[in-house]
Amino acid sequence: MERQTVFTLLDVERTYELGKAGWFGKSRGRLKALDGVRLELRRGDSLALVGESGSGKSTLVRIMLGLEPASDGRVLYGQHDLGQLDPAARKRFAREVAFIYQNARGSMNPRLRIADILAEPIRLHRLRPEAEMTGRVAELLARVGLPAEMAERFPNELSGGQIRRVAIARALAAEPQVIMADESVAGLDVSVQAQVLNLLRDLCREGGITLVFITHDLGVASYLCERIAVLYLGRIVEQGPTGAILGNPRHPYTRGLMQAFPKFGAPLTAPLKGEIPSPVNLPQGCRFAGRCPEARDACRETDPVLAEQAGRQVACHFPLEVAQ
Amino acid sequence: MSDATPMPASAWRRRFLTPIARQRTAMVGLAILAVYVVGALLAPWIASHDPTAQDLMAALQGPSAQHWLGTDSFGQDLYSRLLYGARLALVIGFASVALGLVVGVAIGLAAGLIGGRTEWLLMRITDGLLAFPELILAMAFMAVLGLGTENLVYALALSFVGPFARMTRSDVLQVKSQPYIEAARLMGVPTAAVIWRHVLPNVVSPILVQGGMRVSIAILLESGLSFLGIGVVPPTPDWGLMIAEGRAFITMAPWISGVPGLALAILLVALNLVGDGLRDAFDPSTQRE
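Predict the joint structure of the above. Result:
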């Protein structure tokens, strides 16, 4: 049986007008943060979004959360357009989809105790009677490996690793069906990182939670997620099963990302040359052509589309051969 | 919204009591203020005379066993008038600041949260209020409203709306862009609860500190207006009024102006000490480890 579709993105675009300041400011150009993203998420999927800074990972997630409107294209949650949910559906969306901020400390009101921060979504959606609140908060803290005494603390009294785990606990408090996380393990202690990753993995495997995980760490992506989408300059360049893609990248950018990732016992091979170009004035043709070691004339003239190739999608005129 | 769980005593102590107690000068100011408050509260019981009872036979007397601090030109007992005057000064001071704070914070919140044309309009009104010095604005309003204690409170409150509105707006703009506000909205917290639980608690402490410091300005303005004859109506026991009455007799009976003047000066110093202490204890920009 087909699993239920949770999110459908149909050619989503997001453009920002630049330099429009004041009433008489003139627009100095448009920045295309996302350009024709097509994505489908089914219940129980775990998707990693990878790419360099500025590739549009965060923008994509913010659009899926409804925090920013799509300039063009449609975002469907279930069967409904995200921009046109009625109040009841919007409330359901708020409960079913949880977001874990990259800036975990900033995402918590510094004037509330951890207990109140965790209880807020529970009270809001009336998930537990008031009498069970203390127990539930302790349970959530235990779930992320924090002692129950933490409930009495304020966010600024917790360390970076602790506050991230509280952020995850808050996401779980709403008993969501979809969790989106932005760099939730970056900069964490290795042991804490493993603990958090295992927790998220267990949630996906046992809880049937749909996970969207932004990361620039391909190791984390391959451990946690079954599917991976590689973004470059606002467009998905390669998408498919994590194992297949990281085992045999077909887009030169994916390969470049993997080579830039240090490995034990191997020298750091030539990583990606140059910087990610400015998304304000995109070059004609393939947007990766300028940095691509395989670029040919055709690449500089026509923009490749994301095409289905052997169980995955690749946007490249001359995809790399699958090494047998 | 059931916002039940009360803050445990230990957390309350840690966040409010300890930082204040650490401010030595603030504690001194608080002690002096407490004396004034007790005096004002107990005025009906510890006053020796009716504050408005005139006894022309006993006019212009120096301090004696009968009249502890002497009498004025109408023979009114200065000690009793001082106590009732403290009551009036404190009530007007706190009431006008409270009223100005509530209105100003409401305007600032609306401007900061709604934005756009509403913000522009509200801030231009605020600019208009801020263009006048407090005393001039209060004088103009007293001229329109007429004399009286209540009108004095309104006039002073009006002159405080501007600073509170502007301060609240700038803090709201800063807090509004914090991720925790967006996170709360994302969780589906209703707008009113976002304002009440997430915006207000994060802007309120500098405003309260500012409020504490404004009380002394309010009392000074109130006395000034009464001194100029556009404040409370005589023979209400009011310090400004008492100083004005004693002015003509300053060489013969300096205590008539001196007693309320000294009382006013000490109260203002105490209030400023408390205000500075509050600021040092809670304003993050001056907070030290």
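Residues 49 and 80 of chain B are 6 Å apart (CA to CA).
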